[in-house]
């Protein structure tokens, strides 16, 4: 399984933690250009995984709020 395929299966917290580690490594410096680019690409992918999780959570919250609003309107 490729690293990209593995990352898409990560939970939000796992992806976030890995992203934090990528940022730490990049900020620490001392890497070759190729290593930095590889880490940057990994970070971009992890950020997208996090964004997908957050968007899914946002949709679930909006659906739950709409359901509550609909129930409230039906009760009136």
TrEMBL record:
Classification via PANTHER family:
EXODEOXYRIBONUCLEASE 7 SMALL SUBUNIT
Any one cellular component term from GO for this entry?
exodeoxyribonuclease VII complex
Cite the Gene3D superfamilies for this sequence: Exonuclease VII, small subunit
| EC number, UniProt record | 3.1.11.6
UniProt keyword terms in alphabetical order: Cytoplasm, Exonuclease, Hydrolase, Nuclease
Note the InterPro entries from the entry.
Answer: Exonuc_VII_S, Exonuc_VII_ssu_sf
The entry's function note states:
Bidirectionally degrades single-stranded DNA into large acid-insoluble oligonucleotides, which are then degraded further into small acid-soluble oligonucleotides.
* Enzyme class, UniProt record, top EC level: hydrolase
Q: Give the protein's recorded name.
A: Exodeoxyribonuclease 7 small subunit
On subunit structure and binding partners, the annotation says: Heterooligomer composed of large and small subunits.
**A Gene Ontology MF term for this entry?**
exodeoxyribonuclease VII activity
Catalytic reaction(s) noted:
Exonucleolytic cleavage in either 5'- to 3'- or 3'- to 5'-direction to yield nucleoside 5'-phosphates
Q: Where does this polypeptide localize?
A: Cytoplasm
A GO BP term, please?
A: DNA catabolic process
Assign the protein's first listed, main location to one coarse class. cytoplasm
- Per its UniProt record, what HAMAP family does this chain match? Exonuc_7_S (MF_00337)
Q: Which family does it belong to?
A: Belongs to the XseB family.
